[in-house]
């Protein structure tokens, strides 16, 4: 269960009420030093990023992910973190990088989340970092190696200013965010335990920008998959729709999918059919991404299979949508059968008062830095992420990482100028939280 966050929310509201619209540049000497450190280490941060990007770490590249973790170990150990590589061979994945820093007793417990893996495996043609002035292209440069570099820059700034000493922080960099191992109970066990420990979770996935403005993320939708199998009575097509032959498996599949489209829509819900096959035979491969089918125009099909996903903003919405889908599937056409099975991937990160309070704290920092006020991003604009696994336990704020364009594509490009403002925001937010007693 989520721990109550009313004290945190009340504190943020009190700050807002007492200060009104905060004046710019209201930074403490330590905060000013953090800003200066981030600026001074700009090229160093880019150099770290280049090294990370040039090491392939596709999700299935165990050695590559371990190499990235080996690069990061001395960086975190130099800041006083104890580093552990958590084995995940049980679920056929590279493992997780966890770094722990023990600070002041009773201080805010913070969980920083990112990942080392990318969608680009060793056989992908896109393999190297290329800088073009204030931008850089490369596999994972935004998602998520840019976010990891920004996280590290923020922690180095805190160390230089002396604010890291009191901070209670766990850094969790998963090695399989792009395609986590199954079952999730094992693959995300350590992350969930860290979330249960934490008061605050900060996700260093990409910063969203809309119309040129930085946006805050206090909610992300879930990612749930489903597989639907329909059956019919195979026979001569001239008997289709008769009492004895029924409607056949493909018509039953079409009926169900059509009703999904007509009856499921509601706010914050999307649902998709990604793969479909049917005929007198139909099957999927082990990963469920390729289909085979046989059939003839004059044979009533005996089987049809479809796979898809749906995305929701809360566990309650997930359960409600599942029940509606199951009811539609159960309402069979004549002479047919149907079964639907679900697999919940990423849970939702629902918008909460605690998340909103964290976001208000971030906007206070924006005012102190002389940066524009951030708006809230529509959760429909974000995909799922690891922070969702811990959002039910801790107040959560996502989008603390890099920004750019073309993520997951062969022209993935990062705007390097985001490093100073994102790292400085994060360093000041974590320092202020570390100074509080929870």
Structure, explained:
With 438 residues, this protein is α+β, with helices and mostly antiparallel strands. The protein has two domains: 6-220 and 349-434, Aminopeptidase; 223-346, Alpha-Beta Plaits (2-Layer Sandwich), CATH 3.30.70.360. It has helices spanning 6-19, 29-40, 42-54, 62-77, 145-161, 184-187, 189-197, 249-263, 315-330, 353-369, 418-434; strands spanning 82-86, 96-101, 109-115, 130-132, 135-137, 168-174, 200-203, 208-210, 213-216, 223-231, 235-236, 270-279, 281-284, 291-294, 299-300, 303-311, 337-346, 375-376, 395-397, 404-405, 413-415. A six-stranded mixed sheet has the order 1-2-6-3-7-19, sandwiched between helices. A hairpin with a 7-residue loop joins strand 20 and strand 21 (413-415). The chain is elongated.
Summarize the structure in short.
The protein is of the alpha+beta class and 438 residues long. It is 34% helix and 23% strand.
Q: Determine the CATH superfamily of the largest domain.
A: Zn peptidases
Question: Looking across the biggest beta sheet, what order are the strands in?
Answer: 1-2-6-3-7-19
Domains (count): 2
- What is the top-level CATH class of the largest domain? Alpha Beta
User: Mean pLDDT, nearest integer?
Assistant: 93
- The radius of gyration over CA amounts to 25 Å
State the total count of DSSP E strands: 21
CATH names the topology of the largest domain as Aminopeptidase
Protein name: M20/M25/M40 family metallo-hydrolase
Signal peptide: 1-25
Domain Peptidase M20 dimerisation: 218-335
Pfam family, one: M20_dimer
Keywords:
single chain; about 450 residues; alpha+beta; Aminopeptidase; Alpha-Beta Plaits; 2 domains; six-stranded mixed beta sheet; about 35% helix; elongated; disordered N terminus; Peptidase_M20; Bact_exopeptidase_dim_dom
